[in-house]
Write a structure and sequence with these properties.
single chain; mainly beta; 14-stranded mixed sheet; 8-stranded parallel sheet
């Protein structure tokens, strides 16, 4: 049965079953809720059901719609599916495990620059027999660029088939055009006798036979390539140069397994006088691991005979966090014919987990204008050249007179093994040319346009050799102590162009530079009679430890032939370290041997260098640290570091450059510390930075210099960005808390609660921010708390400690901000505390006025109470039944009745202003009726007598029930 008809009937059966189930559910009065949300929907499998056609046609898919972000896409048929624009899906499967079907996914747009195919969530599986490729480009039209982004951290990108953009780059020469297409196009020739040159990209293309076949030059990014390879040239007898390779860019957050092939090879040619295309790009970034036993390659295309050149290698970059890959990755030139072979391309391997850069294939780096090692590769810890590898470091401005490019490599550790080489030989300033007879560079050799006369050698650390007609080379140029200049080129004569000087390499390692192989910056040589030799270049090494026991470090001048010209002057080598071991190392700065005269030797110095660590910043006292980005209320800051030197003894001076945030560093000292004598044990350097501005934010960098004028590189403090402050000056006081109130006490009001509850509104500081408060409780009205923070800024209330009885308790609080500014003080009080009830009360009967019979006048005296009695209660009942609290004025009138001669007990209680109640006091009186007409009741006199005789009886027990 036809597949489409079967699927249609199957869908009809599914629809019928669903309707039956729905009818059953409805008739049973059941309600089922299915919460369909995108997060909970299981990814749908969408299968290709069409023939060879476009991805964007919905009818080609099993669901009738073009796949979307939630769909698992399966293409498992012998078809070619062409994708024309960026899209996003959940997963992608091409073919199957058995490899029976051979599907092809064909990109027909520039997926690198116009949007990748995005796989978000699931896996990518390209099975055996499956291919991912790209439509051919046309001439120099941008095409052949594949980009797949895999956004699943836990997913896998599996390639057992083939990702292939071979010959999908810029086209080779064809039709009426003799040159190839692309930035590195091979040059053809409209003649029969000469061979065309090949395309270049990562490496130079192979040179064609004869004077016309200039090779295609390198271009594009070394570290993050995305370009297409360039096409090869042709001559009159052959019709097609080879096309360049395309570009494959893969990024995955998960793992990449390569069991198949990822290739961007240049096209080979069959005619012996046409030239191959260059390799293209393979750029892979892996968040997880790289594994498998496959092939990753961007090879140049072959030539076919002895005339046409082979394509230069492309560019391969692979970044991973772990690697168990046992296959191969490379970007070689086309290997045949050997006489016209191009250069290998670039191969960059980066371990993102260790920040390790390794070079595992011989190659040449040609930077673009503005490129530096740091701008290309970012932060690199270790830089390792593999065994039997040569890394040639070229420069881009070799034809200027007064400016040369130096490779400045900054890493933690650098390793060059015994069988490997870093070379800038003949890659410095150019020698003299037809248009510029003198060599290029500040020490360029002197050229000559007369017959039978030679050119001088280029000068650098040594003076270039002179000529047979008496011309002297320029004097030495460049810095002996800090060599970073390339060597200057030799002078040209009618016999040929002058030889170029050597290049320049500076390597700075935080820890170790280990050179067991060869580090060479020699000037160029020639075997002709007239042209001068190139001057040696520069080697400048700085590290904590430099080890070179079996290695070679050279900056020799270039040799010349014949008997007319001068050899190149030697270059310059400087090695600085805290610890060095150069035992057995061959170090050479010899002048080049000239046909007429030899160039002078260059310069070589080795010296200890200062180093430092543990940068810190302090307030003026030099003890209190300022945190990174922290504040100080002082306009002077002290910075410190630990210093040492490779020479012993030595005098070391710390220097600091301080700038306001927003002002870039100028690498010029603004403040210097006192010189400190070093004798083998690390010493402390200290720099006082003064005259800082209130309210300003600063960043700073430092270096250490010794008496030999050796200085460390400037290193910025912090670890924070240079657009952020290292410290901030804030001399403005914060504000104290406001609305300080108590929910438990009022000032100057007595209370028997000896803990006071306070709340307040927090203090403020608009610059540094409030850091906290210092407070104190005492009995003085104007105390200032000390400047030690007691509580944090988040605290907005507190409870006092238990306070002693008294009427002079005060609370004092002051605020400190993060810069250390303290306010004056807020005071609250006095608070009155009395926790003891009335005691030592004497009661007497009396009164100066006439009182009715039966009424007592009671005088309260000798009260021992802090806050004073405010109320009393008196009763004939020990339980004070019917009694109530009354205001106390010092004299109490109480009416009592009873029989003549009766003895009566009176019960007293007192309450003070703080609310404390006394114990119960008792007092006995004897009743005796007074005679009528008496001015003073007899009873009063008798009771007064009793007071004198009996005194006061105090009941030591408390009433369990207080009656108010």
């Amino acid at each position: 049965m036809h597949t489409a008809i079967f699927k249609q009937r199957l869908e009809g059966l599914r629809s019928f079953i669903f309707k039956c189930i729905a009818a059953i559910v409805i008739s049973s009065s059941l309600f089922l809720y299915f919460p369909f949300t995108r997060a909970s929907v299981k990814a749908a499998t969408v299968t290709w059901v069409g023939g060879s056609s476009n991805w964007e046609t919905g009818g080609n898919w099993s669901g009738g719609d073009v796949p979307g972000p939630d769909d698992e896409v399966v293409i498992d048929a012998n078809v070619i599916v062409t994708i024309n624009s960026s899209t996003s899906i959940n997963s992608l499967t091409l073919g199957n495990d058995s490899g029976i079907t051979t599907p092809t996914l064909n990109f027909a747009y520039d997926a690198v620059d116009s949007g990748a195919l995005i796989i978000d969530g699931g896996d990518v599986s390209i099975h055996t027999g499956s291919t991912v490729t790209h439509t051919d480009g046309v001439d120099d039209t941008i095409g052949g660029k594949i980009s797949i982004q895999h956004l699943s951290i836990s997913g896998t990108f599996f390639i057992d088939g083939n990702m292939n953009v071979d010959a999908k780059g810029y086209q080779g020469a064809h039709g009426a055009v003799f040159n190839g297409y692309g930035p590195g196009a091979g040059i053809g020739v409209n003649a029969n006798s000469w061979g065309a040159s090949a395309g270049g990209y990562g490496g130079r293309g192979g040179h064609g036979y004869g004077v016309y076949g200039r090779p295609g030059e390198p271009y594009g990014s070394i570290a993050d390539p995305t370009d297409l390879g360039s096409g090869g040239g042709r001559n009159l007898e052959c019709t097609l140069g080879g096309d360049g390779g395309g570009a494959i860019v893969i990024s995955t957050l998960g793992d990449l397994v390569v069991e198949g092939t990822i290739s961007a090879n240049g096209e080979s040619v069959s005619n012996i006088k046409c030239a191959g295309g260059s390799g293209g790009t393979v750029n892979i970034t892996i968040g997880g691991s790289l594994s498998g036993n496959g092939t990753i390659i961007a090879r140049g295309g072959n030539g076919a005979g002895t005339y046409g050149g082979t394509g230069g290698g492309g560019r391969v970059k692979i970044s991973y966090s772990s690697n168990s890959f046992t296959g191969s990755y490379s970007s070689p030139a086309g290997p045949s014919p050997a006489a016209r072979i191009g250069e290998s391309g670039t191969l960059i391997i980066f371990d993102s987990s260790t920040l390790g850069l390794s070079i595992e294939q011989s190659q040449r780096w040609v930077p673009n204008v503005g490129d530096t090692f740091d701008s290309l590769f970012g932060n690199v810890n270790s830089f390792t050249i593999d065994d039997s590898i040569t890394l040639a470091l070229d420069s881009y401005n070799k034809s200027t007179v007064d400016e040369g490019f130096s490779w400045d490599i900054s890493v933690t550790d650098f390793t060059l093994p015994a069988t490997s080489k870093i070379s800038t030989d003949a890659l410095g300033y150019l020698g003299g040319t037809d248009a510029h007879y003198n060599g290029y560079g500040p020490g360029g050799g002197i050229g000559c346009d007369a017959d039978s006369w030679g050119g001088t050698g280029g000068s650098h650390g040594g003076k270039g050799g002179g000529t047979n007609y008496g011309t002297s080379a320029p004097d030495p140029v460049g810095s002996e102590r800090y060599p970073t200049d390339p060597g200057s080129g030799g002078g040209r004569t009618k016999q040929g162009i002058g030889s170029p000087g050597g290049g320049a390499v500076k390597i700075v390692a935080d820890e170790t530079i280990e050179i067991s192989g060869e580090l060479s910056t020699d000037g160029g040589s020639n075997a002709l009679d007239g042209p001068g030799g190139g001057a040696g270049g520069s080697v400048y090494l700085i590290a904590n430890s430099v080890v070179c026991n079996t290695g070679i470090i050279s900056a020799d001048g270039g040799d010349t032939g014949g008997d007319e010209a001068g050899g190149g002057g030697g270059g310059r080598i400087a090695i600085y370290s805290v610890n060095e071991d150069l035992t057995g190392c061959t170090i050479s700065v010899s002048g080049g041997i000239g046909g007429y005269s030899t160039g002078g030797d260059g310069t070589y110095i080795t010296a200890g260098i200062p180093s430092y660590n543990t940068l810190s910043q302090y307030r003026t006292d030099g003890i209190t640290t300022i945190s990174t980005g922290g504040y100080t209320d002082e306009t002077t800051v002290v910075v410190k570091m630990n210093m040492e030197d490779g020479d012993n003894p030595e005098d070391l001076t710390p220097e600091v450059e301080v700038q306001e945030v927003g002002t870039s560093f100028t690498d010029t000292s603004t403040h210097a510390g006192t010189q400190v004598a070093y004798s083998g044990t690390p010493v402390e350097g200290e720099v006082t930075v003064d005259s800082l501005l209130e309210g300003s934010s600063y960043h700073w960098q430092t270096r250490v210099c010794d008496d030999d004028t050796n200085c460390t590189d400037w290193v910025s403090y912090g670890g924070n960005g240079e657009g952020e402050a290292d410290f901030i000056i804030d001399g403005t006081d914060p504000t104290d808390p406001v609305d300080i109130t108590s929910s438990s006490h009022n000032p100057m009001v007595w209370s028997n609660d000896n803990t006071i509850v306070l709340t307040w509104t927090a203090g403020t500081d608009l610059t540094a921010g409030v850091d906290g408060y210092s407070y104190v409780w005492d009995t003085a009205a104007t105390t200032i708390p000390d400047d030690t923070k007691d509580i944090e800024e988040s605290v907005v209330g507190m409870t006092s400690p238990e306070l002693a009885d008294g009427n002079s308790h005060y609370f004092h609080i002051r605020t400190v901000d993060n810069a250390g500014n303290w306010t004056s003080t807020e005071h609250l009080g006095p608070f009155y505390i009395d926790t003891v009830g009335p005691e030592d009360i004497e009661i007497a009967l009396g009164g100066s006025e006439e009182t009715p019979d039966g009424e007592l006048v009671i005088i309260i005296e000798d009260i021992d109470d802090l806050s004073g009695i405010s109320e009393y209660m008196i009763s004939l009942n020990p339980n004070f039944a019917g009694a109530s609290w009354k205001d106390f004025t010092g004299e109490v009138r109480y009416e009592i009745t009873g029989e003549d001669g009766e003895s009566v007990t009176l019960y007293f209680m007192f309450r003070d202003e703080a609310g404390n109640e006394s114990e119960v006091f008792t007092y006995q009186v004897a009743l005796e009726l007074a005679e009528s007409g008496s001015n003073i009741p007899t009873i009063v006199l008798i009771i007064a007598t009793l007071v004198a005789i009996l005194g006061l009886k105090k009941n030591k027990g408390f009433l369990n029930q207080q009656i108010h």
